[in-house]
Amino acid sequence: MPQAVSIWLLVAGLAGAGLFNAVGTPATRSGFVRWGYPAWWGLVTGALEVASAVLIARPGTRDAGLVLGAAIVAAAVVTVARHREWSHLAPLGVFAVLLALAALPS
Fold first, then answer.
1. Is the pLDDT of residue 1 over 90?
2. What is the rounded distance in angstroms from the CA atom of residue 101 to the CA atom of residue 21?
3. pTM
4. Band (106; pLDDT cuts 50, 70, 90)
5. Distance between CA atoms of 40 and 42, rounded to whole angstroms?
6. Which of 95, 97, 3, 105 is nearest to 52 (CA)?
């Protein structure tokens, strides 16, 4: 049961984050630029997050989605740690825990 809950929380979280990044508010775009990415990078990140959510939602592609999600979270952790923006680590930690729980054997 905890695995199923973590899977659907992960799907919802990645889809929501993906839509938020893809829409790209001015603050979101300036954050990517501050971290050394082009302003449009939020669209790429958002598309990858939504793709990960879709893959995780489907049992046949779940493993690929979890790997993609883990890569996204790892890249985000490296980015925020490199720029010492520690406040971003808490939500990334939640994603990491959900990814780990979702990856547990059923």
1. no
2. 24
3. 0.93
4. confident
5. 5
6. 95
